[in-house]
Write a structure and sequence with these properties.
The complex is a heterodimer of chains A (428) and B (262).
Chain A: H1 9-18, H2 23-35, E1 76-80, E2 86-88, H3 91-96, E3 99-102, H4 103-109, H5 111-117, H6 129-137, E4 140-146, E5 156-162, E6 170-178, E7 183-192, E8 200-208, E9 213-221, E10 226-234, E11 239-246, E12 252-260, E13 266-275, E14 280-289, E15 295-304, E16 309-318, E17 325-335, E18 341-350, E19 355-365, H7 368-375, H8 381-397, H9 403-427
Parallel strand pairs in A: 1-5, 4-6, 5-7, 6-8, 7-9, 8-10, 9-11, 10-12, 11-13, 12-14, 13-15, 14-16, 15-17, 16-18, 17-19
Antiparallel strand pairs in A: 1-2, 3-4
Helix pairs in contact in A: 1-2, 2-6, 7-8, 8-9
Chain B: E1 3-14, E2 19-31, E3 35-39, H1 46-54, E4 59-68, E5 71-72, H2 78-84, E6 86-89, H3 101-110, H4 121-134, H5 152-166, E7 170-174, H6 182-195, E8 201-206, E9 219-224, E10 227-232, H7 235-252
Parallel strand pairs in B: 3-8, 3-9, 6-7, 7-8
Antiparallel strand pairs in B: 1-2, 1-4, 4-5, 9-10
Helix pairs in contact in B: 5-6
The chains are: A alpha/beta (428), B alpha/beta (262).
Pfam families (chain A): SUFBD_core (PF01458), SufBD_N (PF19295)
Domain SUF system FeS cluster assembly SufBD core (chain A): 166-392
InterPro entries (chain A): Fe-S_cluster_assembly_SufBD (IPR055346), SUF_FeS_clus_asmbl_SufBD_core (IPR000825), SUF_FeS_clus_asmbl_SufBD_sf (IPR037284), SUF_FeS_clus_asmbl_SufD (IPR011542), SufBD_N (IPR045595)
């Protein structure tokens, strides 16, 4: 790992000034900058990413000079590269007092919320080198606050595109705070343009206050080497349902974490992934039951083509005192070629007696009798394979509440599989 | 008129469970417009023949040929054979999660059409409804996952439903009657009979004569010991019903051990 620092203290300060950052943020950056190179990299079982270029590109150049005024009309956020986020709130959201702001504007307007929640309880600034680097170098992001009691009928839609043409490393932050008993759905999509030499370091923090209910769907289509953390902190009786499509085309280190802190909190984590070509996706999903009567379920299904690698680590941890809690998980990987590499590691760490826990895992190949049957009806090998895979991934697809998002993920899966098959068929 | 010819076919199986030659020189020729039945005792290679014609990779042809309209099928994979006009109604259809029956059949039909000319949805649904109706099948069957949790009888009906939707030139039906009660068998027979015509031929493999009471064959072949030992008209099936395979074997003076014989 290259220990050369990514910038100097002077440049860091200049960047903060240019963005009118608060004194608190300047301090966070400075402290993290001093620390990050010495902190260890995070460890994920069976995922060796030491040779990945996770720090390509200069994060602090080409910063936008001014903040664009924000318009508000529908519940949509889009952010191109490190440009300020384009945010539109519909009448429903505005009336309810929903706040959605570009990262830099938010840290000025809501310093107390930042002090309390920004890289504190969901992912600590000094947790490891990638987190500290993020705290030092963050150059874009959004902040969303849904006040207590607000129930949104329409989803919050946000779309983030990494722009690598600037040569700028993408260090993007999402801070979401769901107020007490608020209830809403998030549809996220992430992508990047074609360049792959620029890295990304993305941290999303989801803070659910007591009784909040959030449904989070994301379709990830990154093309850059990336560290992508989604970290959630759940207060009492809150519930977070996930449906993630990990459809990246590059090496991605996914670090998903849910802390079931409050009593009675609950998460259903569902993800599908496809690895193709020569890419490596390492997915670690950890749910920790701290509170009593908490429930955390992990379901991860993935498919590997060609020479690609996909590793699912599922970690269910029930701490001492989390009585009457439940941790279940299922990790399954389907390999479509002899050179595909896959792993499904369920890990249960149980420090309390009065709990329920279980796991299932498998690494397998497409069933030959299914392929024969489908092909005997005239379907080509590729089409037959895609049908079997769609069935295999279906358990997550059916979880997505909105038909539009479901169709989008189905189309993305199809696109990724066709690309992967083409790559394979050329190689054969 | 289409033709399917099997010439001196020798087939082996070599896998974990078996190493042996099963077919020892099968000859058979049929044209579209005809229904042929293959009867024979257990373990005589009837299913091996049907799977080999379709192209199941488990079976290896060591000698002979399979010709569709004079062209050898041996180097063609199973999907190409299907698109060339073959269909195999299987004894044990695979179950596939997450793929609906209707979606699957539409993909199968479209596999036979140009990429830019898929079957119009309305036309597909009309055809599907007609055939579901003909086979006494609930329309919910179309939206269920392919064979997933189907009973034995439902699977067999579903094979015939696919046959009616795909409309192949030659349909091989491998013990489509096994495990069916008499009503279900009549329904299956009704489906097959509805396909009868100058452009359709069927090779019906059956253990018992009963199915042939409902689907009258033009030709009956009897297989024993990996070969076709006798061919005749529909009356041959009736004769077998009376005399059994042992009777025929002794009459022909064959040295074949029948599996069920002690």
């Amino acid at each position: 790992m290259n220990k050369k620092l990514f910038t100097s203290e002077q440049e860091l300060t200049a960047f903060s000034q240019q963005h009118h950052e608060t004194a608190a943020m300047v301090q966070i950056r400075a402290a993290a900058f001093e620390q990050y190179a010495e902190l260890p990299l995070p460890q994920f079982q069976k995922i060796n990413y030491r040779t990945w270029s996770l720090f390509n590109g200069e994060p602090l150049v080409a910063a936008p000079s001014t903040l664009k005024p924000l318009t508000k009309s529908t519940a949509t956020i889009s952010q191109q590269g490190t440009q300020p986020a384009q945010i539109q709130l519909n009448a429903e959201a505005q009336a309810a007092g929903v706040v959605a702001l570009d990262f830099f504007e938010a840290e000025q307007q809501f310093p107390e919320l930042f002090a309390k929640y920004y890289m504190t309880i969901a992912l600590a600034k000094d947790a490891h080198r990638l987190a500290a680097f993020h705290a030092a170098a963050v150059n874009s992001g959004v902040f969303v606050y849904v006040p207590a009691g607000v129930q949104l009928k329409e989803p919050l839609t946000w779309e983030f595109t990494q722009d690598t043409t600037t040569g700028q490393m993408y260090v993007h932050h999402v801070l979401l705070i769901a107020g007490e008993k608020s209830r809403f759905t998030i549809l996220e999509s992430r992508q990047s343009d074609d360049e792959q030499a620029i890295s990304a370091n993305i941290v999303e923090e989801l803070i659910l206050q007591a009784g909040a209910q959030v449904h989070f769907t994301s379709i990830d289509e990154l093309k850059s080497t990336a560290y992508l953390a989604r970290r959630a902190y759940l207060s009492a009786n809150s519930r977070l349902d996930w449906a993630l499509g990990l459809m990246n085309d590059s090496n991605v280190l996914d670090d998903f974490n849910v802390d079931l802190k409050g009593d009675g909190s609950h998460t259903e984590f569902k993800a599908v992934a496809i690895s193709a070509g020569t890419q490596i996706q390492g997915v670690t999903t950890r749910v920790t039951n701290y509170g009593q009567h908490t429930e955390g379920n992990i379901l991860q299904h993935g498919v590997i083509l060609s020479d690609a690698t996909l590793i699912f680590n599922g970690i269910g941890h029930i701490v001492k005192g989390a009585r009457d809690s439940d941790a279940q998980q299922e990790n399954r990987v389907l390999m479509l070629s002899k050179t595909a590499r896959g792993d499904a590691n369920p890990i249960l760490l149980i420090d309390e007696n009065d709990v329920r826990a279980g796991h299932a895992a498998s690494v397998g190949r497409v069933d030959a009798s299914q392929m024969y049957y489908l092909m005997s009806r005239g379907l080509s090998k590729d089409v037959a394979e895609r049908l079997v895979i769609r069935g295999f991934l279906g358990s997550v697809l059916t979880e997505i509440p909105l038909a539009e998002a479901r169709e989008k993920l189905t189309a993305t899966i199809e696109r990724k599989l066709i690309d992967g098959q083409k790559h394979r068929d050329r190689a054969e | 008129m289409a033709n399917l010819t099997i010439k001196n076919l020798h087939v082996r199986v070599d896998d974990e469970s078996e190493h042996k030659e099963i077919l020892k020189g099968v000859d058979l020729s049929m044209n579209s417009g005809e229904i042929h039945a293959i009867m024979g005792p257990n373990g005589t290679g009837k299913s091996t023949l049907s799977e080999t014609i379709m192209g199941n990779p488990r079976y290896t042809v060591t000698e002979g040929d399979i010709l569709l309209n004079g062209e050898s099928l041996l180097d063609k994979p199973v999907d190409e054979r299907a698109r060339a006009g073959l269909f195999l109604g299987m004894q044990y259809p695979a179950e596939i999660m997450g793929v609906t029956n209707a979606e699957f059949m539409r993909s199968a039909i479209n596999a036979r059409r140009a990429d830019d000319d898929p079957i119009p949805v309305r036309e597909f649904i009309k055809e599907l409804d007609k055939n579901l109706n003909l086979l006494d099948m609930n329309e919910k069957m179309a939206e269920r996952y392919l064979n997933q949790g189907f009973s034995g009888g439902e699977k067999k009906r579903n094979e015939i439903l696919q046959l009616l939707m795909i409309k192949p030139t030659f349909a091989i039906l491998d013990e489509i009657d096994s495990g069916l009660d008499i009503d279900a068998m009549k329904v299956v027979a009704k489906g097959v009979n509805s396909m009868r015509g100058a452009d359709f031929g069927s090779l019906i493999i059956t253990h018992y004569e009963r199915l042939l009471d409902y689907i009258t064959p033009d030709v009956v072949h009897v297989m024993m010991g990996g070969r076709v030992v006798k061919s005749g008209d529909a009356s041959l099936a009736a004769k077998l019903e009376d005399e059994g395979y042992t009777g025929l074997r002794d009459e022909l003076g064959l040295d074949v051990q029948l599996t069920d014989e002690n």
